[in-house]
Write a structure and sequence with these properties.
The protein has one domain. The protein has 7 helices and 9 strands, in the order E-E-H-H-E-E-E-H-H-H-H-E-E-H-E-E. The strands form 3 sheets. Strands 1-7-6-4 form a 4-stranded antiparallel sheet, with no helix packed on it. Strands 2-8-9 form a 3-stranded antiparallel sheet. Strand 6 and strand 7 form a beta hairpin. Helix 1 crosses helix 2, helix 3 runs antiparallel to helix 4 and helix 3 crosses helix 7. The longest helix is centred in the N-terminal third of the chain and has 20 residues. The chain is globular.
Length: 219
């Protein structure tokens, strides 16, 4: 959380490309999944049962107080306050009617996110086990070493979502780095979509700080 004490009237905007090693990891895991689907009928059958799911993916720390929310786009400062977390930056945003922040989990992004949680975050193994039990998508061949050895680099660790908010007349910026704390599953879904150009990552830079923001899905 950062105190919101400076104007965003003068900022520089830069597009950030996905790191090459992360692109390679996404492609390797997708290729691995495709191979498993082609060679294992039970995995293919389980995968066919998966559907898109839209969730209210709100970081816990953003809900611990009675905030008023004003949205996650540095380009919009005219939205009315709401009692729900509003959407992030979007290229087609007209700064009009507030919309609730949500994320759609797909049959493609979910296995990717859970696999990286299983390989990089031991505390999430119970979540992974539940996922495999209830969805039946058990990849019963060895995960490639290139995926097991992968770790987020500085570029990925900097990507975040933000939310302009107010608490008891004090303006704040709520921040959630995608792969930190208890939010990495949704973070991995977001950066997976970044690799496939379904989202963008934009660096908003001003004299007093930098926000590297994951956009809303591109229409």
């Amino acid at each position: 959380m950062t105190l919101l004490s400076h104007s965003f009237r003068s900022i520089d905007i830069f597009f950030i490309a996905p790191p090459t090693d992360f692109i390679d990891t996404v492609l390797a895991l997708d290729s691995f999944l495709l191979s498993a689907l082609q060679s294992n009928a039970s995995i293919y059958s389980a995968f066919q049962e998966l559907t898109k799911t839209t969730l209210d993916s709100i970081p816990k720390t953003w809900r611990q107080f009675d905030y008023e929310y004003f949205g996650g786009s540095p380009m919009c400062n005219i939205r009315p306050a709401t009692n729900f977390v509003q959407t992030s930056f979007a290229f087609d945003d007209t700064c009009g009617q507030p919309k609730q922040m949500q994320i759609t989990i797909t049959p493609q992004s979910a296995p990717f996110a859970y696999t990286l949680l299983c390989t990089t975050n031991i505390s999430s193994l119970d979540i992974c086990d539940l996922y495999f039990i209830y969805n039946g998508l058990i990849l019963n061949t060895a995960i490639p070493e290139s995926i097991l050895a992968w770790a987020p680099n500085a570029t990925l660790n900097d990507v975040e979502i933000i939310q302009f908010a107010q608490l008891n007349s004090t303006s704040v910026i709520l921040r959630q780095h995608l792969l930190h704390n208890e939010w990495p599953f949704f973070g991995y879904v977001g950066v997976y979509e970044w690799v496939y150009d379904h989202r963008e990552v934009i660096s908003f830079e001003r004299d007093t700080g930098i926000f590297v923001v994951l956009s809303e899905p591109l229409e």
